[in-house]
Design a protein that fits this description.
The chain is mostly helical and about 500 residues long. The chain has 20 helices and 13 strands. Strands 3-4-7 form a 3-stranded antiparallel beta sheet. Strand 5 and strand 6 form a beta hairpin. Helix 17 packs across helix 19. The protein is elongated and about 105 Å long. The chain starts with a strand and ends with a helix. The structure holds one RNA strand of 75 nucleotides.
RNA sequence: GCCCCCAUCGUCUAGUGGUUAGGACACGGGCCUUUCAAGCCCGCGACAGGGGUUCGAAUCCCCUUGGGGGUACCA
């Protein structure tokens, strides 16, 4: 089977596009077929030069390597439509000769006025086919005058057109609902209706998976294919992905719903520290389902089971909470070393420490295993461990009351810190188990709950209410640094008096 | 306005005439526990409504309602 992903380079790729590409990829790999990347850049006005690179980066991030495409080549090159302009022009000419299409000389202004009038009088909007009925003389006059023109499809004015969508079945529309769509624009470049049909045919595409927004123009595509005498590929219209609010098609803008910010663009998910495996798993289960009893699966397993005929036609909102949960699952599957390596580039930017230096930092080796089960995204790591990379005097106690042990007042909390400091000064070796045993003993001796005894230390060390486990945190800092921070905690508490 | 598509817990979904309508996330509770997590256990929670067809409908048909998409010399 031959399957293509055919995006327009008009901006950043969002998750809806990535999901389409993923399903293309899954179907190609499932059938042992070919996954093709084709760039539909025929809209010069919306073209964005940067988006092609970003698009390819996004696809490769997810692991969707294409077998044929702009950079890798292939038997049907070129794979960028503007480089194929002559092909479309020739095909438009073929339809013109057959009488299946005609030249239209109407100006944009006339078209606008016509539509406005139609809307005002509550008529269905659409081209009035004025140029379809031009006499040969009139046509010759316009050509002689050098008027610019477009090529329009001559849609049958009666009858019905039926096409098949694999997941929805046969769909029939009345031809009177259809318009004489523009196939070739006045700049000589084709519209989607021409370019995609020509390329799908020439590139021998067997299955077209595309967004549901194409469903209403599918009859046009059927008519274009018929005009050429071609068979349409199998059409599969994937349900649109809805905004997190469940209202409307997902936009490329970050969406804030109930105070929470939702990402939409692939590059945003990459920099937030979502793992490609988690995203692959996540997207596979929106619109399709691997197995209702299995949430986590391997790519190979998904490829083996994937079936386009089981795609759900219902538009869906992305379950973002589930993505976070899945990402956490995949983070926990990583070895600590692998996690550390993934974390370093992100932490390096956030902490402003050179990657090589971070990689060699002992503190990271101790702390990473401690935060592994606490992370949902990699970009959260910094909040867990930033305190470890500061100097004692950089720790800010925004809320000094955090230094109070549970059920203890300031004086008692100071007593606890000083009591523990004495232990910390002498204990050997300075390791988590040893420190913990000693602290528990001291808590008993002072008749304080372990949690109440530990609390002031946690706050003194990190400046935070929530932190990684206390004794590993101490190990990471080292004895001297811990003692400095404990002293600072005592001073802060003394101010509370 | 017109055309097309869709409709199971809050969300993602399983279900293709006979199920106590299943799972996951989220949420609530409990256990564990040095904070927070993770993990384990329990719970809450859905067939949009109305007509048919049938011995029997979440499943088939129709209508209503709701949602979505399209209505460009954009894709």
């Amino acid at each position: 089977m031959r399957v293509r992903f055919a995006p327009s380079p008009t901006g950043e790729l969002h998750l809806g596009g990535l999901r389409t590409a993923l399903f293309d990829y899954l179907w190609a790999k499932h059938t042992g077929g070919t996954f093709i990347l084709r760039i539909e850049d025929t809209d010069q006005k919306r073209y964005d030069a940067k988006s092609l690179e970003s698009l390819m980066r996004g696809l490769r991030w997810l692991g969707l390597e294409w077998d044929e495409g702009p950079d890798v080549g292939g038997p049907h090159a070129p794979y960028i439509q503007t480089e194929r302009a002559a092909i479309y022009q020739q095909h438009a000419e073929m339809l013109l000769e057959k009488g299946a299409a005609y030249r239209c000389y109407c100006t944009a202004e006339r078209l606008d006025e016509m539509r406005e009038e139609q809307r005002r009088t509550n008529q269905t909007t659409g081209y009035d086919r004025r140029c379809r009925h031009l006499s040969p003389t009139e046509r010759a006059e316009r050509e002689a005058a050098g008027l610019s023109s477009v090529v329009r499809l001559a849609v049958p004015t009666e009858g019905k057109t039926t096409f098949t969508d694999l997941i929805r079945g046969d769909i029939t529309v009345d031809n009177r609902q259809l318009q004489d769509e523009v196939l070739l624009k006045s700049d000589g470049l084709p519209t989607y209706h021409l370019a995609a049909m020509v390329d799908d045919h020439l590139m021998e595409i067997s299955h077209v998976l595309r967004g549901e927004e194409w469903l209403s123009t599918a009859p046009i595509h059927k008519l274009v294919a018929e005009a050429f005498g071609w068979e349409l590929p199998v059409l599969v219209h994937l349900p649109v992905i809805l905004d997190p609010s469940g209202k409307g098609k997902m936009s490329k803008r970050k969406k804030v719903v109930e105070g929470k910010e939702y990402l939409a663009l692939v590059h945003e998910f990459i920099s937030a520290g979502y793992l490609p495996d988690a995203m692959f798993n996540f997207l596979t289960n929106v619109g399709w389902n691997y197995d209702p009893a299995v949430e986590i699966f391997e790519r190979e397993e998904a490829i083996e089971r994937f079936d386009i005929s089981q795609i759900n036609p219902k538009a869906a909102a992305l379950p973002y909470d589930k993505l976070d949960w899945l990402n956490g699952q995949y983070i926990r599957q990583l070895t600590p070393t692998a996690l550390k390596e993934q974390l370093v580039p992100i932490l390096s930017k956030q902490l402003k420490i050179a990657p090589a230096k971070l990689l060699a930092d002992n503190r990271l080796d101790i702390l990473v295993p401690q935060i592994q089960e606490r992370l949902k995204r990699l970009d959260e790591a910094v909040e867990w461990i930033d305190w470890a990379f500061k100097d004692a005097d950089e720790i800010v106690y925004d809320d000094p009351s955090l230094l109070l042990g549970r059920k203890l007042d300031a004086a008692q909390s100071i007593a606890v810190l000083e009591d523990g400091a004495a232990v910390l000064r002498t204990i050997e070796p300075f390791l988590p188990d040893e420190i913990q045993a000693a602290f528990r003993e001291r808590a008993d001796a002072l008749d304080v709950k372990a949690g109440g005894y530990f609390g002031p230390f946690r706050a003194a060390i990190s400046g935070k209410k929530v932190s990684p486990p206390l004794f590993e945190s101490m190990q990471a800092l080292g004895r001297d640094e811990v003692l400095r921070r404990v002293q600072r905690g005592v001073e802060e508490l003394a101010k509370m008096g």
